[in-house]
Design a protein that fits this description.
Strand content: 5-15%
CATH topology of the largest domain: Rossmann fold
Number of helices: 9
Structural class: alpha/beta
Number of domains: 2
Mean pLDDT: 85
Low-confidence stretches: 1-5
CATH class of the largest domain: Alpha Beta
Order of helices and strands: HHHHHHEHEHEEHEEE
Largest sheet: 7 strands, mixed
Distance between the termini: 31 Å
Strand order of the largest sheet: 3-2-1-4-5-7-6
CATH superfamily of the largest domain: Vaccinia Virus protein VP39
CATH architecture of the largest domain: 3-Layer(aba) Sandwich
Length: about 250
């Protein structure tokens, strides 16, 4: 039901609708006497239930459940609005346009690094790109081991971009980080494309890969499958999230 709709727009609609319903109920009756905080709990439960039945991601359900009660709580505690502005700016620097891309910040584990080391060529020259490279840990670790490779990262969030650029200074000849959306970059120049995204963009990524990547190049996805496309190989990783690497040859 939500496949073709932006989750944040749906979430906003649910919040507005449930808040209006609770307000109308309060105005139209005088039997039930509850505090403002108790009414906010009722609104949160209603919004959470609707989100659950619409099969929204679990984090959206939790946000819907807690949003209004937390707003009422912070107003009651008279917390300075500057704290919220600071928090918002920090989240913006860390996560960038997650609300638009539907791709949160995921950090690849050491097990991913070890698995990729065995997959990449040992002698032949190759190019590797990390779509949404985060803080650059994976790229820099691979660049230290594979001197025969050229490593590239594309990141749109400001703070991870800055961290990854600083980390790549010792390997700047073989490891380069670019700012922006990977949708705007041509994938034809890379032999290996690595992505740790989310379920939302995987189908679109496959269309982009089929259109741009060279025959024989490799697309690797951490955790998330491409709908309807069977990978030619999968590697289970014994890491903290029990993730799996999925490989497709173009």
């Amino acid at each position: 039901m939500l496949k073709h709709q932006h989750s944040s727009i749906v979430a906003l609609f649910i919040q507005i609708t449930t808040t209006l319903l609770v307000c109308l109920f309060v105005i139209s009756q005088s039997i039930i006497t509850m505090s403002l905080f108790e009414w906010s709990i009722s609104q949160g439960l209603l919004a959470g239930l609707i989100s659950y039945f619409l099969r929204m991601p679990i984090w959206w359900t939790l946000i819907q459940l807690m949003f209004v009660p937390l707003c009422i709580t912070t107003l009651a505690l008279e917390i300075s609005s500057l704290w919220f502005l600071s928090l918002f700016l920090c989240l913006l620097l860390i996560y960038g346009k997650t609300y638009k891309t539907q791709v949160p910040l995921y950090l690849s584990s050491k097990n991913v690094n070890a698995a990729l080391e065995t997959l990449l060529p040992r002698q032949d020259q190759f190019s590797f790109v990390d779509l949404g490279s985060g803080c650059g840990g994976l790229l820099n670790n691979l660049a230290k081991v594979h001197k025969n490779g050229s490593f590239y990262g594309i990141e749109s969030a400001p703070l991870p971009l800055l961290i990854s650029k600083l980390r790549s200074l010792p390997n700047q000849d073989s490891c380069k980080i670019f700012w922006g959306s990977f949708w705007e970059y041509d994938l034809s120049q890379y032999d290996v494309v690595y992505a740790y995204l989310s379920p939302v963009p995987m189908e679109s990524l496959w269309h982009k890969a089929r259109k741009e990547m060279r025959p024989g190049s490799l697309l690797i996805s951490n955790t998330f499958l491409i709908p309807g496309i069977t990978p030619y190989k999968s590697i289970e990783l014994n890491d903290f999230s029990n993730s799996t690497l999925y490989l497709w040859k173009i």
